UniProtKB/TrEMBL annotation:
It is an enzyme of class 1 (oxidoreductase). Keywords: NAD, Oxidoreductase, Pyruvate. This is Glyoxylate/hydroxypyruvate reductase A. It comes from Variibacter gotjawalensis. The gene is ghrA. It comes from the Bacteria.
Amino acid sequence: MSALLVAVTGTSAQAWYDRFREAAPQRDIRQWPDEIGDPAEIAYVAAWKAPHGLLKDFPNLKAVFNLGAGVDQLMADPNLPDVPIGRAVHPDLTMRMTEWVTLHVLLHHRRQPLYMTQQTKRIWKGHDQPAASDVSVGVMGVGEIGADAAEVLARLGFRVAGWSRTAKKLPGIEVFAGMDALPAFLARTEILVVLLPATPETEGILSLDLFRQLKRDGALGGAYVVNAGRGKLQVDADIVTALDQKILAGVSLDVFPVEPLPADSPLWAHPGAILTPHNAGDLSPRDLASNVIGEIGRLEQGKPLQHAVDRKRGY
């Protein structure tokens, strides 16, 4: 028997299970932790933040499907079985991430935090507004989501460039590649959009040293960071220091090294920080459940996954 186990941690666990049942009513679908049944019957696991060590208990496991954009929590499992891992890829996920990025780039570009502060004080005062064509935006991480965000921002008129650890090509957009090219990419960037995966090489990359390399004398008169990638990319203490010292003029953060963000974090009340609760890429369980069922169908036909994690790269 080839059962599918839905192993989701959090308040959305029941919604995910229900959507999988709707997407494949003929399939044996079980819910962790109460309906696992015989571990030998589990062939597939659809997981989000499942506890480490769970997957090793299924001797006939054929594939694992990650129900979110980031696979770092899953890949950190020291007992992760050597089976294919499916990535969460869906047009709706890409669209939602691009929406969030575009929203926050525009918030900083159009000085919306300043106007919201003025509103609370009943101040009617306009400020110089540069054109998008005068503002340099840099996108770190130009995979499927990053490429889409870069293209949308370019269509809005921003001077967009990308950076990737390996060479990439985007029509009409300059892409810097490799660590040697990172300083030049940062030096031309006023608004830094971060959509990198979390790997040993990228952990802590958003540090004071990096922030100091951003362009602060451009059209916006300061540098901004918009991170919707992974929390482990950023050093929260360095972000606070950079804001306090005016190295950064503002930040938008959707992800954090520790989630939920601790109540005593100074980021909560910092006037230069806009925070969201890791919801930039919130995806409808219905959409992704259908995607996973389709991928399982491919495996059962002897075909490879369309969207598989590269274990060597970690994403």
